[in-house]
Structures are given as structure tokens and as C-alpha cells.
Amino acid sequence: MPSAPSPAAHVASRGDDLVETLPPPTIAVPPSLPISALVGDYSPSESPSNGRFTPSDGEFTPISSPSSDTPDDLLSPAPSPSPVGVSTVAVVGIVIGGVAVLVLVVLTLVYFLYKKKRRRDDEAPPAPKENKNAMFGGQEQQMESQVSEHEKTSLPLPQPPTPPQLPHQPPPPRPFMSSSGSSEPNYSDLPALPPPSPGIYQGTFGYEELARATNGFSEANLLGQGGFGYVFKGVLPNGQEIAVKQLKAGSAQGEREFQAEIDIISRVHHRHLVALVGYCVAGAQRLLVYEFVPNNTLEFHLHGKGQPPMEWSSRLKIAVGSAKGLSFLHENCNPKIIHRDIKAANILIDFSFEAKVADFGLAKIVPDTDTHVSTRVMGSFGYLAPEYAASGKLTEKSDVYSFGVVLLMLITGRRPFGANNVHAADDSLVDWARPLLDQASEEGDFTTVADTKLNNEYDIEEMGRMVACAAASVRHLGRQRPSMDRVASVLEGSMSPSELKEETTPAGRT
């Protein structure tokens, strides 16, 4: 029986040759190299952790147990990093990035949808609607009421805007137009609110607002008082100084004067007419707010206690300014306005001695078609024209007479009537001065009529012009008096006093 082949030798038959081969060597892994460096793509999950690798047939021969004398690092592969921590961080990062991208996409879509809707709304044509608000500064925006279609069809048609008529509210004032602008249309039949005076008129005020402005209508703010009530100085929050006239409550006359002031002065704007800032209606209270003229009145400067004598240049300046203001009322307003209460106390003066005619509470609007107006006699004693005082027939020549009295006060420094004057107590200033004025004009000597406080310090030519205007203005018959426009022209020297001859007045006028 043949003997078994030696385990040390292995005989393989390859064709006709016999080759003796040595036993397959065992590959030991050096400590410095891991197993994965020798086997390439070797996967630990597909093979056991211990064994030997035979390269001749690619088989792996397991070893039941390593010998005790074999080092552990020669048998076990090098430890690899755990994949658990790395994979968790990667997953979290991917999730956060995905959420951020999703939010960005959603926001982008929302933005583009919003822009598209805006563009569609802008391109849509507006609903056809006629602009009815031209009177409110030409504003073209239309206000849409948020009501249902049924409510829209049941609403009344829009009416032309009209001012509210409150129980104690004065009616809307009539508009005035310059007589020189005849080509302009006449809107006098249309209701309208007072047009604001640029930089002056502000409209209505609250009672509390005016009380704060006048420090509670304190006595320290009192400027003056009369039959109408009281006048207080005030300061608005914007720093504008005002004069507040508080009319007596419950007076029918005060109600008429309040309405007349609103009707007239809110419409008339001239540098020599006091400007209306606004008014207040609060229960029975009626208050008028004017621009503040800081230097008191002509009456105060002529007859105020302790006041120094007025210089001649200031007197002439006041005469010219107030004459221009009255001329504007008579000649440049259509219909014309008759003041009816021209007197020294109603001529306000600023620090430059510029005059402003004030207090239109008795003013009367007179259409050109009326030859004269018969009214209840109103005014101040000593200033009334004789024809008006006797019969109540009122024309603009009544104002001319009253202004002539003011000129006499500027010339002589005397009051229109009273025991303190040199003339007899029962004679008026006009009756005393008439013969003296004519004589002074003829002789060119004004010492008999000029205020002694002037100490003859006045211009002879200027005094002659004022004396001529005063004499012509206080003529007994109204038709013989000059117009205020002519008086103003002579006072400022642009017209000769010879132009003040008795005017030809149409028949029927006095």
C-alpha cells in the first residue's frame, strides 16, 4: 500500500510535467500596515476578523484561535473611525440646508405674486367719475364709500357743496370783485365760503383755543372796550399775535355786527384794512379774531393821557393810508361797501405809523343800482354826515364826511365835539373849523387851525393839501364832496387841490 504523501510536499500534475511545490507561505501583517492596505477593496463584513489568506487559490483559511504567543496587533485589523458621528452631522446639515432653501423659494414665490397683483391693479383703468371737488383746491382724488351695491343704488345724488347753516352761524358772505375786472364772471349769486387771505385767514376757532391764547381773557390782556364788548390781545400756538373782539352775549346788535364783520372783512384784503384771522361761535358767545396792530389807535395818540404830540409826518402818513383804505371800499369793491363808522378810534396804527381801518360791524353793502339807501342811523356822535343823521339816507359820501372830521382832528388836535375844545361846547368841530379852513387856504396861513402842539413844525404845502381835503370833505351837501379816491390822490400829492372843486353828482344823489 503506498504511503501517504508527506504534508511537507504537494505534487500537482500539469500536463506531462511533474512539479514539486512547497507549502503555501503564510503572510504575516506587519504592525505598521493595516490589513486593508494589503487586500484592497476587502470588506470586513464579508470575512471573519481572524484567519490566513492564501493567494494561490484566493481562499481564506480560518484559524480556530490564535496562539498565545502571537501579538494581538498581528492578528486584528487597525481600528477604523466610527461612522455614526459623521453621518449624524451630515444628515442634520442637509436637513437645515433643505429647509432654508424651501423657505427662500416660498418667499420668492410670494414676492412675485404680490408684484404681479400690484401691477395688475395699477394697470386697471379707474372707474369713470366726474371730479366735483374743484372748489377744494383742485383735488382729483375720489373717495369711495365702502357700502354694498344695494346701499350705493339707494344713496341720493351728490349735491353742490354749500356752507352749513347753524342756528347761530352767520350766513356765507357774498363774494366781491374788483370793478376794474369787468371781463370776469360774477359769482355773487352762488353760495361760497370766505376765501382765505394768504398767510392771514385761518377759519374758525374753538372757544377754549382763544381762551388759552388770551390767558383766559385776563385783564392784563385787555386792549380796550366799548359798547360792543371787549378786545383782548392773544398769541396763537404758532406765535402769531391776534386781537380777539368778544361781543356782548345775547345782544341783537352784537349779532348783526358779528354777521357784518364776517360778511365783509373776510372778503376784503388791503394793506390799509385790518385783516380777519377767523371767528368763533360757541353757544351765545361771538368772537372775532383779527391781526394784531401793535401801536394802538389814532384816538389814543391824539388824546391819550400823557401821550407826546404826534409829529406832522406821522399825521400825514396816517391820513394817506386810511384814505386809501376807504377808497378801496368805495371804488374797488363790487358792490361797494360803506363803512358807516369812520372815526379816530377805528383807525389802528402800527409802529411805522401805517394806518389800518378797522371795525366793520356797522358796514353796509350798497349795490350800484341804488342811488341811496335809507337805513336806521348808526355811527358815532360828531362824525355823522348831516344828510344821514337827518333822514337816514346813506351813500359813500357819508363816509367822506366822517373822514373829513378825522382830517380836522389831525390838523387841529381837537376832538369832534365836547367841552374840552376851544370852540363852544354846543358847536361841533366842523362848524367851528369851516370858515377858518377857507380863510387859511386863501391866505396860505394855517396858524389859526394848526395844532399848537406842532409848534409850526410842519410842511406848508402838505398842510395846505390836508386843509383843502378836510374843507371839501365836510361840505354840507353830499353831492358837493369829492370821492375818497380823489381825496387820497390829493393827500399824497399826485393830484392838485384844485381838483377838489364841487363834483357833479347825478341827480337824485345827495
Description of the structure:
Its EC number is 2.7.11.1. ATP binds at residue 245. The chain has 510 residues and is α+β, with helices and mostly antiparallel strands. Among the domains are: 203-291, Phosphorylase Kinase, domain 1; 298-500, Transferase(Phosphotransferase), domain 1. It has helices at 36-39, 72-75, 83-123, 149-154, 207-213, 252-265, 298-303, 312-331, 386-391, 396-412, 429-443, 460-473, 484-491, and strands at residues 10-14, 17-21, 52-54, 59-61, 203-204, 222-226, 229-235, 241-247, 276-282, 285-291, 336-338, 347-349, 355-357, 364-366, 373-374, 393-394. The protein has a six-stranded mixed beta sheet with strand order 5-9-10-8-7-6, sandwiched between helices. The longest helix is centred in the first third of the chain and has 41 residues, at 83-123. Residues 1-22, 35-61, 63-78 and 124-199 have low confidence and may be disordered.
The number of helical runs is: 13
Summed over residues and divided by their number, the pLDDT gives a mean of: 73
Percent range for helical residues? 25-40%
Question: How many strands?
Answer: 16
What top-tier CATH class of the domain at 298-500 fits best? Mainly Alpha
In CATH, the homologous superfamily of the domain at 298-500 goes by the name Transferase(Phosphotransferase) domain 1
Gap between N and C termini: 181 Å
Shape descriptor reads elongated
EC number: 2.7.11.1
Keywords: ATP-binding, Cell membrane, Kinase, Membrane, Nucleotide-binding, Serine/threonine-protein kinase, Transferase, Transmembrane, Transmembrane helix
Subcellular location: Cell membrane
GO molecular function: ATP binding; protein serine/threonine kinase activity
